[in-house]
Amino acid sequence: MPALELTGLEGGAIRSQDWLKGRPAVVNLWATWCAPCRTEMPSLQRLEALLAPDGIRVLALSVDSDHNLVREFVLKYGITLPVSIANSPSKAMAALGAVALPQTLYVGADGTILGSHLGQRDWADPTTVREVRSRFPVKTPARP
């Protein structure tokens, strides 16, 4: 995972390495202006609860330029995922190899990008949850 300068929802600076906290993570790149991103956000929220017992975090990285829009969106829709905002959306997208949104990265505990998914999906679908778990090198007990 490249070093990125991020801002938390409360306005504090965050380094991408600190945001990951040394744990495997599903990192979703999104924006408030991206309709598919908004549509899949509730299923990402559910995915977080499904993966938490496995020690896998689900993180949302906004590439919006207006931080207030992100804060309003999160509040309006009750998003409780850890959300950060890229200080330079274009640099973040380039550094992560993202050409379109939504883009979701599978990041190992050591910060290595293990794979990605481009496009909207139902992240809480049992087949998708199994596929996401299989992306991480440590096998976890089978769960629905």
From TrEMBL:
It comes from the Bacteria. InterPro entries: AhpC/TSA (IPR000866), Thioredoxin-like_sf (IPR036249), Thioredoxin_CS (IPR017937), Thioredoxin_domain (IPR013766), Thioredoxin_ResA/DsbE_sf (IPR050553). GO terms for cellular component: cell envelope. GO terms for molecular function: antioxidant activity; disulfide oxidoreductase activity; isomerase activity. It holds the Pfam family AhpC-TSA. Its main location: other. CDD domains: TlpA_like_family. It is found in: Cell envelope. This is Thiol-disulfide isomerase or thioredoxin.
